[in-house]
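Hi support team,

I submitted a single chain yesterday and got back a structure, but I'm not sure I'm reading the token output correctly. Could someone confirm the output below corresponds to the sequence I sent? I've pasted both exactly as they appear in my results page.

Thanks,
R.
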Amino acid sequence: MPKAGKILADLNISDFIRDMGLAIAEAQAKLDTNSVDQTLRMGQTVLPGMTQNLLSLGLRPAFYHFQYADLEVNLNVYYSTTVDVGVNFNYDNENESSEYSLETSSASGSATITVQDGEGIPPYACLALVANAPGHLTVGTTSYALDGGVGPNSTGLPVARQDTLWETAQELLVALRNNSVWTNQATGDLQGIFMDWEMQSGVTASTNRPDLYAINRSVITVRTSPQAAPGDNLVIARLGSVTPAPALLLPATNGTRYTSAAATVGAALADIGQQVDPAAFVVVSGGDCNRAIYFDTDIHDVPTTTYGTDREPSAVLDAVAALLAEHPSASLTLEGWADQRSPPAPGYNQRLSQKRADFVLRALTSRGVAASRLTARGMGATVSFSSSDLAANRRVVFQFSGVPAALVARTVAATAAFDPTGTDREARIVPRTRAPANAPTTAVVTFRGTDFTQGTASQGTTFAVGATAESTAANLARAIRDANANTAFGAFARGDRVYLYGTGDHALFTLFARTPTAPALSAAGSIRVARRFGDGRPPATPQPRDTLVIDNVQLVAVEAGVAPQPGQFTLGVTGADTARNLAAAITAGSSSGLLAAGLQAQSAGNIVTVSGPSGTMLGTSNPAAFLLSGTRIGGRPSADREESSERELRALNVDAHLAVKYELSVSGSSTIKARLVAVPAPPQFLQAIGDYLERWYP
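Hi R., thanks for writing in. Yes, this is the structure output for that exact sequence:
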């Protein structure tokens, strides 16, 4: 028989405990693999009738982790030998591991967010025209001399300086496009150019007729031609069927009855609309709209008035806003498109189409439509609307949800009705602008203490009211500009909008290089380089729709010039501008209850320091543009630990007696107790999965 010591040595208790620990680790690895696989399936699964995958819709995977594990081993060894001396041996061993619980403390801490000013792909750069003064610019092999501005080689294509900063910016834009983008398609340095107006001065205006002139910060939107002229009312007609044949009666003038014998609802509405308002009637049927907002080449901030039959974009926008006002639960998706050019700059048409959709969204919000009811979506380049007419593809289309078949048209009538009346049809008149009670008959816009009064002719501070909102806006901008001659203040018109500017406002040019190798860039005088071309590195510049996540609440970046809503912050010309806006949004969000109470943020240069409860989670959708010092404020939350002492019990009993008998018995039991907890997927992991899906499953 073996000796008692050898029996204990052969039991190998340490290997037994090690094997159980490895089993836990193997189970953890399988849990993690399963979570990753589920995430990929969510990103590749699109429900019938939808365009977004489950991950985009907000479904999030959970990761499971073992919080603690107890290993318990009970072993009994019985050994008995009886020859003349009998020995009975009994050995007990019991181990208990430590158990603890964590309670997060409310200690405060801080973290930093660094806003990058890096470059991206495709190579692009930003220039700012900051003053109406001489300057010089060199892009690649081409130089531009702004009204006497002299470059390093005393050369440059002349660019004439105009009366206002805005007009000079337009001249520089045309020169860049003519000599690098449009004329030299094959060899030019630039593929495309955007120009935006950066408003930093905060100048604003006021009016006694907000129903006619909607003012948002430094932008005045002319709601309609503000005169008692045909077209100031809208007829909104809803139609459910064409049986009996629909006839729209407008009795305010001559009792004209507009009838249709069309076989479908959409065709009947279009038929009647053509008779009532040939220029700008809007028909919605099945969610689709017969009208779109069109743009000229490379333009995103003013609709064209020269393409096709849709030559009054402000009237179309008024009609869409009125229809949404009639249906408060309805929503609208704005799809922006661009035409196809060869060779296309990577990402250029996508950005252009998104900017167009964003512009139409802002135009509707200025008409009283809540931004929460609108979705702007850039669709990129297409030939879907026409393979031969490029202009047909430069548009923003309307996709309605929750609006029945309806017609909106301009009319001078005061009342309207379907005749004969059906149970599934209705027609009513609404004013294109809703004047408040006792509104003054003469509209006045006040800027820098000067009243600009609408009239029939332009003279001094009186501006003529035109036949369209666009012409009225042009006349108002000219009056403001003339009254502020030889100052840093002025105004310019883009479509139905008047943009006011003052000290510090400037034109911002975004240049897209034609090739992956970025051209050389230098500037002097009134032209400043805000951002240089990239060198092939991943984008490290904050972009519109980037998000900062604070405890699962998103702060969304919006482009310059857009008034931020709660939960948004505006991108600036520099990283310091963006950091300042982000800090203000965080502090305001904490005060309003959107973010956790006690959060504070301050900016210094391009660094935002966030202070608040320790453990507050931080994340971003663009970690290359917003560098986080950690995923939580103050690192991990501090905790109180409760722990039980470890206990080990051993017992050895020996009993001897005379006998001739051999007995050996070894028995034991083991248990493992483990607790699984679910934690949300880290934002960095979801971003990595999103990048992976976008690359391999576009």
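A quick pointer for reading it: The mean pLDDT is 78. Let us know if anything else looks off.

Best,
Support desk
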